[in-house]
Amino acid sequence: MATIRDVAKLAGVSVATVSRVLNQNGYVNKETEKRVKQAIEQLNYKPNEVARTLFKKTSRTIGLIVPDISNPFFPELVRAVEDVMNIYDYTVILCNSDEKGEKEKEYIDILKQRYVDGIILTTNQLTIGEVSKIDVPVVVLDRPLDHSLPSVIANNYEGARMATRHLYDIGCRRIAHIQGPLHVVNAVERFNGYRDEMKELGLWDEQLVFLGDYNLKLAKEVTLHALQTLSIDGIFAGNDVMAVGALKAAQQLDLDVPNDVAIIGYDNIPLSEMTTPELSTVSQPIYQMGAMAARLLVKKIEGQSIEQSQHKLPVQLIQRKSTMRE
Ligand code: RIB
């Protein structure tokens, strides 16, 4: 494979001149630049990316850390980030932290060693002090971390109030909530929206709240227990994966969904349309969130001015059969 020295020799210039042409920095006269480019083409020379990265301390790559790649919400988010980053000629290094702070910190160190140009965090495990030590631009996506950081999130609180009010509007009066992980800010925001709506409706009862951790099996188990020990006629699950678990539990107990118990989830992942009955949900603008975060990061990396660095996107109620009562 041709080296930079082979190119310099063929073009009759120094290695430094070839490097200036490759990196487009420093003066090279037009005739010399033309000879160098001809030599590169003739030898089919490919710059050594590792060497280039070490020299320029940039890699045209970004790191994207997600907490649970097994949850269908994240692949759609990752797809959007990758599509936009590729438009701007950046490569994405995807990291899955398994909702573990320590694993996330290890990935941050690895990404810094690889001279990534920026990082998108869809977790909220690090403190703002830890994030501020990251010496490249950081954008927060989906899970709020700190108001000082550029971020793209959706309106979790309003979405939860919409879901709860929807169950009330179809006649539910004993509405349970299956909550996501206590350390995840958007799960807490959704709980707050559910609680405030229930208080406004005069239906609040803390015994109707169960921890599902955004987890399918746990949500099924806690729903089985709840449906057998309490009178519940509506369930708002903090994400669609838990709503699928709740649906499984209701059907295992031979309960009719929605007429015995109505169920609504949150996210609008494709799976929510594949269940029987199809799941009502609160639709997050997943792709739009990922794309906006990627564009925000590119602007930060390239030093462009940013009119607005905090974005909170609206969500939308999607009614399907799991809340359509006869
Ligand atoms: O389903 C996974 C959840 O975690 C989603 O609601 C998303 O907001 C992410 O934070």
Strand arrangement in the largest pleated sheet: 2-1-3-4-5-11
Order of helical and strand elements: HHHHEHEHEHEEHEHEHEHEEHEE
Number of helices: 12
**Mean pLDDT across all amino acids:** 94
What is the count of structural domains?
Answer: 3
CATH superfamily of the largest domain: Response regulator
Looking at how many chains there are and whether they match, the oligomeric state comes to single chain
Distance between the termini: 71 Å
Query: DSSP strand (E) fraction?
Result: 15-25%
CATH topology term of the largest domain:
Rossmann fold
- Structural class comes to alpha/beta
Overall spatial form: elongated
Helix content: 40-55%
Task: Briefly say what this structure is.
This protein is an alpha/beta fold.
Question: Could you walk me through the main structural features you see in this protein, from its secondary elements to its overall organization?
Answer:
This protein folds into three domains: 44 residues, lambda repressor-like DNA-binding domains (434 Repressor (Amino-terminal Domain), Orthogonal Bundle); 123 residues, Rossmann fold; 136 residues, Rossmann fold (3-Layer(aba) Sandwich), CATH 3.40.50. Helix content is 45%, strand content 15%. It has twelve helices and twelve strands. A six-stranded parallel beta sheet has the order 2-1-3-4-5-11, sandwiched between helices. Strands 7-6-8-9 form a four-stranded parallel beta sheet, sandwiched between helices. The chain has a two-stranded antiparallel sheet with strand order 10-12. Bound molecules: alpha-D-ribofuranose.
